[in-house]
Automatic annotation (TrEMBL):
GO terms for biological process: DNA-templated transcription. Belongs to the LysR transcriptional regulatory family. Pfam families: HTH_1, LysR_substrate. This is LysR family glycine cleavage system transcriptional activator. One of its GO terms (molecular function) is DNA-binding transcription factor activity. Residues 5-62 form the HTH lysR-type domain. The keyword NADP does not apply. Keywords: DNA-binding, Transcription, Transcription regulation. It comes from Sphingomonas leidyi. The lineage of its organism: Bacteria, Pseudomonadati, Pseudomonadota, Alphaproteobacteria, Sphingomonadales.
């Protein structure tokens, strides 16, 4: 274990040795001259030898002081460089974490515009549904699905999670027409035991019917459901804002107008202590505007904040 004298006293010694004057050292450190003298007394008592000697109205380093002053200054310079490097890296890189569907289907294709707006920032995107500890600094910002803001975090509402059945038009053309929600019970539905189906049927019919079916494909992610629907394997229950590109290209269509809202919404979150960081403010402003632009006239009610 290192046996170091009090760092506050060492800091005073380093400043006084550079200036050769306690008054100028006090001004640099924002201390009184009496406080500087007190810290030097503590340090000399700890070492058992004087570091400065009086010379007329000023002070000069003793032999011991002259021997250690360059090493102490070098140590402070090295620490300053280390912290400056960390600060520069911290300010030049923004780390983002987002769940799979949002990151893959919505965020990734848009991050290029943020990079163009802020070419000085490198972007690191972590994709995963697990919760990242923002308070421990594991990421700068998170896009997360949650019922509401999390305590201890700065949170900004992004969008709701509207859900509705989507399917490939070729698939629909090969099956009986869908005129009512109950007609969907006669068609192959992807991941038919997903609770999103129960939620949507309850909203569309006023009650949740028996949504079981004899057989079908079951996936564990919305990305797989959506891609299977695009391939024509069935009707998927999806959140349309996550599939805007497929809807715009005609790969997916919405056969019925009914939409339900999932209990969670997407939020931008970051630790309270990061709220004034320029890179976090820049990403927040860009993201909030990007969400509004992407939803256009908001046909699914995604921009309506959830009741709290």
């Amino acid at each position: 274990m290192r046996r170091l004298p009090p760092l506050a006293a060492v800091r005073v010694f380093e400043a006084a040795s550079r200036h050769g004057n306690f008054t100028r050292a006090a001004e640099e450190l924002g201390m009184t001259q009496a406080a500087v003298s007190y810290q030097m007394k503590l340090l000399e008592e700890r070492l058992g030898a004087p570091l400065f000697a009086r010379s007329g109205r000023g002070i000069v380093l003793t032999d011991l002081g002259r021997r250690i002053a360059p090493q102490v200054t070098g140590a402070f310079d090295a620490m300053g460089e280390a912290f400056a490097a960390v600060h520069a890296e911290t300010e030049s890189v923004i780390s983002i974490t987002a769940p799979r569907t949002l990151a893959t289907n919505w965020l990734a294709s848009r991050l290029g515009s943020f990079q163009l707006a802020r070419p000085d920032l490198a972007v690191r995107l972590h994709v995963g549904d697990e919760m990242i500890d923002l308070l421990a600094g594991e990421a700068d910002v998170a896009l997360r699905g949650a019922p509401g803001p999390l305590p201890g975090h700065s949170c900004h509402f992004l969008m709701r999670m509207p859900i509705t059945p989507l399917a490939n038009p070729a698939f629909l053309a090969e099956h009986p027409p869908i005129r009512t929600p109950k007609d969907l019970l006669e068609l192959p539905r992807l991941t038919y035991r997903d609770d999103w189906w129960d939620l949507w049927f309850a909203a569309a019919l006023g009650e949740a019917p028996d949504t079981s079916q004899a057989a079908g494909i079951r996936f564990d992610s919305q990305i797989l459901d959506g891609n299977a629907a695009i391939a024509g394997h069935g009707v998927a229950i999806l959140s349309p804002p996550m599939w805007q590109a497929a809807l715009d290209s005609g790969q997916l269509v919405q056969p019925l107008p009914q939409v339900a809202q999932y209990r969670n919404a997407f939020w931008l979150m970051y630790a309270e202590g990061k709220r004034n960081q320029p890179k976090v403010r820049a990403f927040r402003d860009w993201l909030l505007e990007e969400v509004r632009t992407s939803l256009r006239d908001d046909p699914w009610g995604a921009l309506v904040p959830p009741e709290r």
